[in-house]
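Protein modeling request. Please complete all fields; requests missing the sequence field cannot be processed.
Requester role: graduate student
Desired output: 3D structure, token encoding
Chains: 1
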Amino acid sequence: MEGVGSEMDVHTTRFGTISVPPQDELLFPLGLIGLENCVRWAVLTDSDNPSLGWLQSIEHGHIALGVVSPRRFVPDYQLRIDRDDLRLLELTTVRDAEVVVIASRLEAELTLNLRAPLVINVEQRRGCQVVAKDAYSVRYPLTSQLVPLRRTA
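Delivered output (153 residues):
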């Protein structure tokens, strides 16, 4: 990682070297579950799959997580969480929040973690991972026809 106060070059294992302008950085002050030491992230688009994004750690180039909008695959997904969970985001209204979930490959199957989504205040560039009050699955299965993921690097 290079650059301070200007565009940063991040050396990643999945995408090669990427440049991240300061205004594109997302801060997750508490990190993510199991990745508490990863607080600075960048969101990248997937050129092969418009429904897939990548949350790339700025501090750890080997960590990139596939993320999708849960409603694209689970139209009735409703996130209910404690308001205290959103305090870190500095939201003026919950309408300013963007919700994404982590997509994972489990053997030959793709799954979504609907239980612990990421909530992002796009304006403030702050995010947090929350645990839904409803008993959603951490491994909600997707059929391969819905999200054809390909390794891009």
